[in-house]
Amino acid sequence: MAILKISEELSRDISTKSLKIEVYHQSNIDLFLESDNSFQVVFRSAKKMLEENYYVLIKNIGFVRKKNIFESFVKLFGEYYGAIEYTDIKLDCPYTGCKTKSLSLHNDDAIDIGGQPKYGFIQIQKEDPLKITKNGMVLIDDMVSYLQLHNNDLFNNLLNIKIKMLAYGVNYDGNDKNEIIINEPILYYEDDKINVRFDLTRINYYYWSKKITPSNQEKLLIDEFLLVANKFRKEMYLEEGDILIHDNLRTLHDRTECTLELNLDGTFNTREIFVSFTR
Ligand SMILES: [Fe+2]
To answer: Per residue in 116-135, pLDDT tens?
Structure first.
């Protein structure tokens, strides 16, 4: 587990500064984080852990529910694009991120060849009412070492057999709704390292939408891939304020079920998160 716990002293310092700078214009908050020693020591340690472990969980950072500071923090890690998305859990959720049911192992924007985010970020704004929701993480290196030793045939199939995925636009809320179909292997080499491209929702969407029954070979490949992935899945509970950063090309992630707490006026209390990406 790659956990970076911020000391009380450093956390207090970041909290005090966060209260002061949150009224600044976004570009000035960006500049502040780029030059401030406390934010920089967190960034440098997190980046190093990310490069070595492919994910890092930052605890006790000292700022919560400050969208503009989270945005500037994300920007330290690479090319920021899109936005800070706020996601809660809904009863009638139009896309996967806000469903109460669990999300299966995937990497983000797998459909987007060439534009897939390198790093994904979430910060917990409000914990699940029953505190039951866990985030899961799988390192592709763990899977590759295992496969090379125990099942080279499966390893070669994952590098060579192409699987189709379908989406209408990369993001649910994007303007571009053109049909995107890709046909790629689940594992691929990049700079001598092995990356992953996998999203079962998009794969099943292709079969369902085109009224195609997947071959037994494809079904078996996906099933065996998930069996090995789950062998190496690590699970963690994220508390309010925690920031989880993952290398989106070299890990898979998932999330267990969430709770809907019903209020007298018919509204719900649910888990709330900020989500963002860099390339
Ligand atoms: Fe995701």
So the answer is: 999 999 999 999 999 999 99
Distance 264 CA to ligand 1 centre (A): 32
Q: Which residues contact 250 (CB under 8 A, 6 or more apart)?
A: 54, 139, 140, 141, 193, 194, 195, 196
The radius of gyration computed from the CA coordinates of the chain, to the nearest angstrom, equals 20
**How do residues 21-64 score in pLDDT, each as one tens digit?**
999 999 999 999 999 999 999 999 999 999 999 999 999 999 99
What spacing in Å lies between the alpha carbon of 161 and ligand 1's midpoint? 24
Instruction: Spell out the domains of the chain, with CATH numbers in brackets.
Output: 3-137+235-278 (3.60.130.10), 140-230 (no CATH)
Q: 255 CA distance to ligand 1 centroid (A)?
A: 8
CA of 173 to the centre of ligand 1 (A): 15
